[in-house]
Amino acid sequence: MACPVNLLAMPPSLRWLTIRHSATITQHISARHASTTTGSSSSARPPKPPPPREPLSYLPTPSNNPSQSALPAPSPSSSALDAANTIFTHDRPKLLFTAARFLSLPFNTRIPEICILGRSNVGKSTLINALTGLGGLKAGTAHGVQARREGLAITSRKAGCTKTMNGYGFGRVRPDVLKAFLRDREAENKALEAQAGSMSRTERRELKKRPREAVPSCALVVVDMPGYGHASIKEWGVEIEKYLSRRAKAAVLLVDATVGLNEGDRMVLEMLKAHRVRTLVILTKGDKLLEKEAVRDKHGRGQKNGGLSGACVRVWAELRRMEGRHSQWTEGDGWEREIWVTGAGDRRNGPGLGVEGARWAICKLAGLVEDGRTFDAGSEDSPAEVEVVSFDDIVWAPAPSKEDNHIKA
Ligand SMILES: Nc1nc2c(ncn2[C@@H]2O[C@H](COP(=O)(O)OP(=O)(O)OP(=O)(O)O)[C@@H](O)[C@H]2O)c(=O)[nH]1
Ligand SMILES: [Mg+2]
């Protein structure tokens, strides 16, 4: 069985996680492989592989560990995963807005908003569809009614498919959020009425036309961004830069697991750092990488570039290099050290590899779920073989508070 990390370099208490992940991945790939190799006769179609419920994420080893590899992180509890699943899949998701310009974005001061960034074709829209449980590969050709059957966001094999900032609403609005909004709205209306008494008719008409924030109708807003192409932020859009500098509090950067970070990603990371946007990295197309690795394994060629673990190590190295010495956008505080892996582009794999984990990670970034996981650094009877620092010390920073997730002033 191929193992993503060196087992001996891990505390015994965490080894089972590696074995569990490897087993899931191997089972997943062999089922997938069977379906592609035996698929020539339509009557002998193999049974669908079981949906890979297992979340897939990695944490860096402590920085004083010379091997600098990645540890598979423990899974959130099934109740935590269910809470995130409910937000994304229980109610029908809504297309809230489509905006080509920053100024046409609707106000949002109440609902946590997460934007999904990444180069063209990395799989932003595909992941959004997979998060909703509406299918990954074949997505919608239109928003709205058709979206129910075909997928929510529009995707394409051709780069440059999404050209506007598209906001989707997930889950039910929290009653306390709604109550506070309505209370404030009432107070605001009263103040406006008092003000209107001393205004001319034209001024009153203008006041009525002024755009106002809509009554909150969901628990989470996810914004699908246009992808950036050939290295130029200018090409990518002044409007998106405005979004990041003036509105974004938290972002998910999607990175193709088979390619890694490119020049465009680095430029975007610089912007996220400059505007102190909390950043989570999710690797997409993990299924492709695992499939390639499975083929290499079959021919006895071993892993190339460290597989998924290697892909994570390279992202951490880049983030640490970028963070620099005096940055306020730091490991665990500006960017999340845990990297999640997804493979959402193929419907034959049920809901997609690691999608449940991605749901949870996004909800956690939005402050909607708590991180109740703990790490066991080994006991006196079974001491960790490579004791570098306590695992308690490498736990990430606490989830942002609810207040942090309102938009920037
Ligand atoms: N195998 C695999 N294919 C994927 C995955 N994610 C996306 N794809 C494929 O990659 C292509 C591009 O996906 P999109 O979701 O349209 O990419 P995007 O990032 O939204 O692209 P733009 O809108 O152009 O910025 C589609 O053909 C998807 O089926 C994945 O996780 N695994
Ligand atoms: Mg897209």
Overview of the structural elements:
With 409 residues, this protein is an alpha/beta fold. The protein has helices at residues 12-37, 78-89, 124-132, 145-150, 175-196, 201-209, 233-236, 238-246, 263-274, 286-298, 307-323, 355-365, and strands spanning 57-60, 70-72, 94-99, 113-117, 165-170, 220-224, 250-256, 278-284, 339-341. Strand 7, helix 9 and strand 8 form a beta-alpha-beta unit. Helix 1 (12-37) crosses helix 10 and helix 2 (78-89) crosses helix 12 (355-365). It is elongated, with a radius of gyration of 23 Å. 39% of the residues are buried. Bound molecules: guanosine-5'-triphosphate and magnesium ion. Magnesium ion (MG) binds at residues 124-125, 155, 161-162, 224. Residues 124-125, 155, 161-162, 224 line the site of magnesium ion. Residues 110-325 form the EngB-type G domain. Residues 32-45, 55-78 have a biased composition (Low complexity). GO terms for molecular function: GTP binding; hydrolase activity; metal ion binding. Residues 29-78 are annotated as: Disordered.
Anisotropy-based shape? elongated
The CATH superfamily label reads P-loop containing nucleotide triphosphate hydrolases
Spatial strand arrangement across the major sheet: 2-1-9-8-7-4-6-5-3
How far apart, in Å, are the first and last alpha carbons? Answer: 52 Å
Q: Summarize the main sheet.
A: 9 strands, mixed
The distinct ligands, each listed once, are: guanosine-5'-triphosphate, magnesium ion
The level 1 CATH classification is: Alpha Beta
Helix content: 25-40%
pLDDT averaged residue by residue? 77
Counted by DSSP, the helix tally is 12
Q: What proportion of the residues form beta strands (DSSP E)?
A: 5-15%
Extract low-pLDDT stretches: 1-5, 13-20, 22-43, 48-52, 136-149, 377-407
Q: What structural category do the secondary elements indicate?
A: alpha/beta
CATH architecture: 3-Layer(aba) Sandwich
Topology-level CATH name: Rossmann fold
Radius of gyration: 23 Å
The counted number of beta strands is 9
Task: Give the topology string: H per helix, E per strand.
Answer: HEEHEEHHEHHEHHEHEHHEH
Number of domains: 1
InterPro entries: EngB_GTPase, G_ENGB_dom, GTP-bd, P-loop_NTPase
GO molecular function: GTP binding; hydrolase activity; metal ion binding
Protein name: P-loop containing nucleoside triphosphate hydrolase protein
Pfam families: MMR_HSR1
